[in-house]
């Protein structure tokens, strides 16, 4: 399940990066706003045998979800650090469960043909609760922390231990480490922007300010040297996708 899930995740990230790069330099009809994961699902669906391909992606993401949930439940660590790791596993599982569900609905013809606004929906629901602005603010901080953690993983080289434990050839190991470093930085940068959107939604009490990956791409594209910034992040996400492929091929998967 882990290897199938990592492969599906790698495919999604590679396509997200490719579509975002095309949007950055106006190659084809891709747009930054529609270069997120839900936009990728639509892109796959429009290809020959698109439903079959998307069904395989959905199944892979469902397998990834199960692997993360199993890790969260079966990891024996009870320390504060271990509990934090288990919570990360559970959160990752829930995120990819939602993506798998969305992809499966598209395959079955039940999904929306438009771009998803899941984060705006979450922000809207939270803002309707007591202390709603605080709740969205906490979500913003949590999202930003997740982004900083991704960058920390890259700069601290913590992820290297997992790669080095696979006992790979030197050139393969170096390629995997470089792809992971670039990919984690790019992914963390996107999460930081999404956290900023949630913060704006909290401060202005406006769920319309929240946004996901597509909104982050559009934000980057609208800045000075936006095409180059978006292109760099897009290539970084492709590297993250390649890193997932290499993990699926070479990593010693933990079994508790």
From TrEMBL:
Ranges annotated as spanning the membrane: 12-29, 49-67, 87-104, 134-155, 184-205, 225-246
Entry annotated with the keyword Transmembrane helix: yes
Coiled coil: none
Domain of life of the source: Bacteria
Domain DUF1206: 4-74, 89-155, 182-249
Keyword Transmembrane included in the entry's annotation: yes
Key words of the record: Membrane, Transmembrane, Transmembrane helix
InterPro entries from the UniProt entry: DUF1206 (IPR009597)
Protein name in UniProt: DUF1206 domain-containing protein
Organism from which the protein derives: Pontibacter burrus
């Amino acid at each position: 399940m882990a290897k199938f899930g990592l492969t599906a995740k790698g495919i999604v990230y590679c396509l997200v990066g490719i579509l975002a790069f095309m949007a950055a330099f106006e190659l084809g009809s891709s747009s930054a706003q529609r270069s997120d994961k839900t936009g990728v699902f639509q892109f796959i669906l429009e290809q020959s045998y698109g439903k079959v391909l998307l069904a395989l992606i959905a199944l892979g993401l469902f397998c990834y979800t199960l692997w993360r949930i199993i890790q969260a439940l079966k990891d024996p660590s009870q320390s504060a650090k271990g509990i934090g790791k288990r919570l990360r596993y559970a959160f990752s599982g829930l995120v990819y469960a939602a993506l798998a569900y969305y992809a499966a609905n598209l395959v079955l013809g039940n999904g929306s043909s438009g771009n998803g606004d899941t984060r705006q929906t979450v922000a809207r629901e939270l803002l309707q609760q007591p202390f709603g602005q605080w709740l969205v603010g906490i979500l913003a901080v949590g999202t930003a922390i997740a982004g900083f953690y991704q960058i920390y993983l890259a700069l601290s080289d913590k992820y290297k231990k997992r790669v080095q434990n696979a006992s790979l050839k030197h050139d393969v190991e170096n390629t995997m480490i470089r792809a992971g470093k670039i990919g984690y930085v790019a992914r963390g940068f996107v999460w930081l922007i999404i956290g900023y959107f949630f913060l704006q939604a909290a401060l202005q009490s406006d769920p319309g300010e929240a946004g996901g990956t597509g909104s982050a791409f559009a934000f980057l594209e609208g800045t000075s040297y936006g095409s180059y910034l978006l292109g760099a992040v897009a290539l970084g996400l492709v590297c993250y996708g390649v890193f997932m492929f290499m993990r699926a091929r070479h990593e010693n998967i933990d079994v508790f």
